[in-house]
């Protein structure tokens, strides 16, 4: 199954549609194009072997945290803030992205997918570690406490600037 929504550009949307059509000629692939409700996304992630995020730009990668929160192993590129979220070899697999070598990235990414799909027990273990990391390091209570601590350290009073 392949889920994708809101491509960054219309060109990426067209490129993705063509790639999916070619894949559908050879394999049983279902593409959910619509923006799925949160409950549907959670069900899909919870039952997935792996979540794939081949981004070439990603400031943090909230989508990876969402997958990890659903106990799903992540395979992602090593760009932007993704390595701050996904621990390579523990909560998923990171694949090096070099814009000068896109074909190399594509092959390495496919290899990582095949590696993890071939070992569902490893994927399950990564998913469990990912869930633990998402809750322990990125849960809202943790984020709120860290934010409050920054205010305290700066001497500012939280809410003082609010109208």
Automatic annotation (TrEMBL):
InterPro entries from the UniProt entry: Glyco_trans_1
Recorded GO MF terms: glycosyltransferase activity
Domain Glycosyl transferase family: 28-132
Residues in coiled coil: none
Name under which the protein is recorded: Unannotated protein
Lineage, opening ranks: unclassified sequences, metagenomes, ecological metagenomes
């Amino acid at each position: 199954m392949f889920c994708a929504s809101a491509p960054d550009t219309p060109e990426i949307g067209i490129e993705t549609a063509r790639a999916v059509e070619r894949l559908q000629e050879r394999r049983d692939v279902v593409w959910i194009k619509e923006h799925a409700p949160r409950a549907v996304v959670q069900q899909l992630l919870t039952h997935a072997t792996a979540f794939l995020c081949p981004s070439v730009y990603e400031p943090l990668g909230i989508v990876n945290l969402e997958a990890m929160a659903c106990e799903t192993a992540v395979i992602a590129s090593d760009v932007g803030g993704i390595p701050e979220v996904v621990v390579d070899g523990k909560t998923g697999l990171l694949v090096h992205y070099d814009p000068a070598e896109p074909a190399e990235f594509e092959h390495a990414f496919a290899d990582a997918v095949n590696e993890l799909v071939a070992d569902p027990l490893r994927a399950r273990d990564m998913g469990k570690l990912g869930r633990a990391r998402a809750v322990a390091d990125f849960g809202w209570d943790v984020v709120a406490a860290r934010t409050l601590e920054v205010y305290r350290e700066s001497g500012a009073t939280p809410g003082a600037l609010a109208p």
